[in-house]
Amino acid sequence: MNLQYSGVEQIPVRRDVVWAFISDPANIAACMPDVISSEVADSRTFDVVVQVAVGPVRGRFKFHVVLDPQPGESRMNMKISGGGLGSVVDLLAGADVAETPAGTELVWQGTATMRGPVAAVGGRVIDAQAKRVITTTFENVKARLVAAHPAVPSG
Amino acid sequence: MSTTIEPQSEKHAMGVRMKRKEDPRFLQGRGRYVDDIVLPRMLHLSIVHSPYPHARVVKIDKTAALASPGVVAVLTGEDLAAHGLAWIPTFHGYDKQMVLAVGKVLYQYQEVAGVIATSREAAVDGAELVDVEYEPLEPLVSPFEAMKDENVIREDREAKTNHIYHWEVGKREQADAALASSDVHVQQRVYFQRCHPAPLEPCGGIADMDGATGRLTLYMTSQAPHAHRTVVSLVTGIPEDKIHVISPDIGGGFGNKVPVYAGYVVAAAASVVLGVPVKWIETRTENLTTTGFARDYHMDVEIGATKEGKVTALKVKTVADHGAFDAAADPTKYPAGLFGIVTGAYDFPTAFTELDAYFTNKAPGGIAYRCSFRVTEASYAIERGMDILARKIGLDAAELRKKNFIGKEQFPYPSPLGFVYDSGDYATTLNKALDTIGYAELRREQAEKRARGELMGIGISTFTEVVGAGPSKHFDIMGIKMFDSAEIRVHPTGSAILRAGTKSQGQGHETTWAQIAAEELGLDPQNIMVEEGDTDTAPYGLGTYASRSTPVAGAAIAMASRKIREKAKKIAAHLLEASEDDVEWADYKFRVKGVPDNAVTMQQVAFAAYTNPAPDTEPGLEAAYYYDPPNLTFPYGAYVAVVDVDKETGFVKVRRFLAIDDCGTVINPMVVEGQIHGGLTEGFAIAFMQEIRYDESGNHLNTNFTEYLVPTSLETPGWETGNTITPSPHHPIGAKGVGESPNVGSPAAFVNAVMDALAPLGVTHVDMPLTREKVWRAIREAEAAKANGVPA
Q: Which of B24, B166, B397, B639 is 20 to 30 A from B508, alpha carbon to alpha carbon?
């Protein structure tokens, strides 16, 4: 089962600050919802254990996350792979990071491939859950950045 | 409204509505199922399954699992390979299947490793920790893609193709010519979807290797305990006398518990290695995703006819999806089972059918769900085809059938596809159904409703089955002839024990087997204990599936009883002080001919057999019989469904359903009614709810009962039943078997009814399951087509 996601997030923080934030595995791990534990392996990879509740599939999933910043600091790709309870989830995501007058715009897309019991739960249930995870992650990114950088410098 | 099946006589035990002897045990929760058995020092097995439908197994790391509390061992395919157990033959005999994955996985949920632990929970936790590295491969989900051979999935086979076999029967050229010259020609592809029997009790077993005796005891949910003992012996090399299979109470089988599954083999291997009992009990998801599915036939049906509606030819071309292994447990000479019954109850001058089977990345199986051997698919194809023909010609569906029935005077009837039908009176049975349900009145009501724009449908299915496999000259499974057996021992006080090679999974053998013997011997059926499922005590038989128990083992019971009666007659003559020639069996007693009061009962004879046997007569009173049937049996029926379809929502309300069955001699009308009620409910589920689906990535989408629906009493319609009796001329008591008839005959009746309801809209065919959404879409598309001026 393949599911496609996309969205746009406006963050009133300077682009270089946003880029630095999303390039740090510890920050991304901290922004993901339902995280039980995380362990940063190096500057580009980390592992997380998350609590999953999708229909009858309830338990802990383990994911390995690899950040793949593209040259020019204008796009961050991310590969998430893992699963649990007999299910496998692979997520290939990417965000274009662009400067705007109001700060930074993240235009993101993702393709999730699901196998095993989680794929049998039904598209609408999974879709809602996956959207919640992605949306919450970006909302958390924005919230943390805004909290740390409350004002957008002019010019 | 409800009618009942009539007893055919006032006999002693046969045809009596006797309550099931096994029910007090079940109703009081005293049944003993595999999972009820707890043995000292018993360990538990949990299976690790593949999340990928097609992948290479790169590495299996057991380290974390072995460190998990309670885990004793982890077995992989490589471990089994060291003992020659990585692959086992399928029951069909032409293919083999992996026990645990070796090199590749070929379908999602395929068994990859087994974790043995001190508790079930510890085993499940350990299984979570087995780290399997896969290299995903492109999955092959459709048999129509498989036939291109661009992605050949079975690297272990010499033939580099996904094609498994081609099978055909009949006269192709003759059928083609007849179709070409027919006044009327209809053609329709019908898909009988992949579904699953989903017995309430999943599969399971306990393997107990006794290190002291070298004897392996296997408690199994087995529909065929003796066949399983033989397979285990052949695969493991353990002498058959050192294997003891016990099949305790079983909570439904429907063919799902015929094959040998990985859990049995891994539990046995683990018990042999560890020297303690190992239990394996499936989860619901494991049952739905890995064990024997049913159907998955794509059938192109062509019928030719005269403009008056007399059929001239039938041709059916089928593409079969067998999944990753050819594990369809068909008799050796019948790769497509008994699909040749596809000419049904109709007198086709000529016919031809062919079938090609393919491997795909799906679970293996194909022979299950109360269908005999592909008889359900065949019945559905012809019954849909006849309805479509009736509509094309403009004939009433019942009239078209009557016009084409094989006449009762034509029996024994050689069908154009090779069977010799034993007996039947199809017109009488259909007429009884039409009269009982008030067909003419229903058609009048339908006309009125159609005039008001309401959608009401009446569907007919006049199917015939072919069951009772089978005659040894044609039927074997892995070389073992498909006879069956019975052994009866009459005790001194006139009670008895009866053992058979079959195995009830809910069919009521403890009652009906006793009734057959009681009828033949003049004993009380309540005092005949029936025992099955223990290979140490029961005579060898091929088990219970495909409606074969009554046609084969039921006959063996009658014949064993008659052997006892022959011996008893000698003892009776001795007691009556008469010549044996002067003694006759009448009114359930031995009596001197012409002197009816000078008689002895079988109980008196039994006592004498142990206390006062006749001179030169061996003491005791017992016999065994291995019955090799001379032909198959052909039970049949006429079913009528009445539905109302909500045009706005697509909801189908089954208002009435009448099943008139003819299974020959009826042993116990109440048991037959129970069988029919159960089978109709399954047929209803198949027609409206059930399908095992895979997405384009090979994900199994129906892994539990929220996604694979089993109807409850709330959804299930009320069933009306009745019968006619046309005994089988070659069966000792004239019985034909009935367990599978309702599942075979009913799907077509339901679909025909819905299509009849949708006929005014121009809808010809919709594949099952007829979910609300599918029916709604069919209505909307038909309305849109009409609005756009597309002719119906």
A: B639
From A1, which residue of chain B is nearest by alpha-carbon distance? Answer: B697
| Cα angle B566-B567-B571, degrees, rounded to a multiple of 5 | 120
Structure tokens given for B395: 């004939």
List the single best residue of B47, B135, B138, B704 to mutate versus A (max A Cβ within 10 A).
B704
Check if A89 contacts B (Cβ < 8 Å).
no
CATH number of the structural domain spanning residue B556: 3.30.365.10
Place of tokens 């998350």: A50
CA angle B617, B621, B622 (to 5 degrees): 120
B769 upstream amide cis, omega within 30 of 0: yes
Q: Which residue in A59, A145, A48 sits closest to A91, CA to CA?
A: A48
pLDDT tens per residue, range B3-37: 555 554 456 899 999 999 999 999 999 999 999 99
* Residues of chain B numbered 210-239 and touching chain A (CB < 8 Å): none
pLDDT digits over B355-401, tens only?
Answer: 999 999 999 998 889 987 999 999 999 999 999 999 999 999 999 99
Q: CB distance A56–B128 less than 8 Å?
A: no
Residue-range definition of the domain harbouring residue B717: 293-468+631-787
Residue B382 CA to residue B313 CA, distance in Å, equals 12
Distance in angstroms (rounded) separating the CA atoms of residues B338 and B415: 13
CA B638, distance to chain mean position in Å, is 20
Confidence (pTM): 0.94
| ipTM for the whole complex | 0.83
Report, at the CATH architecture level, how domain A2-147 is classified.
2-Layer Sandwich (3.30)
Cα gap B707→B696, rounded to integer Å: 17
Q: What single-letter amino acid sits at B564?
A: I
**Shortest Cα distance from A53 to chain B (angstroms)?**
16
CA distance B174 to chain A (A): 47
- Nearest chain B alpha carbon to A116: B51
